[in-house]
Amino acid sequence: MGPVFKWDQFSTDSMLQKAGRMPFCYPSPPSTLAKAHRLTESQPQNSDGSPAQAGDVVIEARDVHYSIGGRKIFEGLDITARRGRITAFMGPSGTGKTTLLRLITGQANAESGSVKAWGQEVSRMSSRELFALRRRMGMLFQNGALLTDEDVYENVAFPLRAHAKLPEELVRQLVLTKLHAVGLRGAARLMPAELSGGMARRVALARAIVMDPELLIYDEPFVGLDPISMGVVCRLIKQLNEALGITSIVVSHDVHELSTIADDSFLLSGGKVVAQGTPAELHKSDRAEVRQFMSGLADGPVAFHYPAPDYAQDLLGGQS
Asked: Rounded to whole angstroms, how far apart are CA atoms 47 and 62?
């Protein structure tokens, strides 16, 4: 039996915002879940069945090449995500951050190179093996991807109903536990249309963790959030990673937020990793493209304009 964690560390008292004392938790009736609900986590394993150790490689990509419509996205990409750590993939828009997640989850295959998850080559997996792989992962989609015709409770319960035959009472306990972890147990019967952007993102996070994944993947988790909601999501990412002993991959271009939670960072540009290390190390880099991105500079090697013909010729020549 693996380690036992208390979920009451995510209670309202311990999750207050920095600005004012706005409660993190949506109002809800008293419950024993708020007092001392415990979650027993099974010990993650390597592909050969042996216990995984802290720092073991979970995701590894080596010399990856990938194109879309003739446009090169990756040209020799190398990245590593280790167990128990929060790994950030950063870069300007259009550098393939979300595409990298598609390669990791087996939704697309690299043209050449290697993408491994827990030591297994993703591109060589059968459909059955891919489904088994994805059950070990939780995904927070860029837009939340909530089911609009289902309430919050049923959105979080969806993976349990799809992948496990559990008694309804156990489903209820698991759903309420995860909603309590993100401060939204009181919102269980609200519809997605009744949620703010930050609340919807937290519901999606509860759904992502309801199967107790070994790897949590966040695709642009901070987009469209106000400062308070952004602070809440940042804190949740950090505390969930520490409490559950899992691995987290965060894809974003929000430098400040990532600097507060990431253990390791990879900066992507031009189809490759141009810098890697801790956020502090990236801030000290003397490479022009790294300085431009980390400091938010308008001028630098990363062009603002998408490649196009000469502007004057395009206007005068009527080219489309």
From this structure: 19
C-alpha–C-alpha distance, residues 273 and 285, integer Å: 13
- How confident is the model over 16-45, as pLDDT tens digits? 233 333 444 555 554 433 332 333 334 444
* DSSP for 228-269, written as a single string: HHHHHHHHHHHHHHHHHT-EEEEE---HHHHHHH-SEEEEEE
Cα 222 to Cα 254: distance, rounded to the nearest angstrom: 7
Both tokens of residue 157? 């319960």
Give this prediction's pTM.
Answer: 0.73
Q: What is the pLDDT of residues 136-169, one digit of tens each?
A: 998 888 777 888 899 999 999 998 988 888 899 9
In 3D space, the residue among 272, 317, 314, 310 whose CA is nearest the CA of residue 290 turns out to be: 272
- Measured distance CA(300)–CA(288) in Å, rounded: 7
Tell me the two tokens of residue 14.
């311990």
pLDDT tens digits along 41-58: 344 444 444 444 445 899
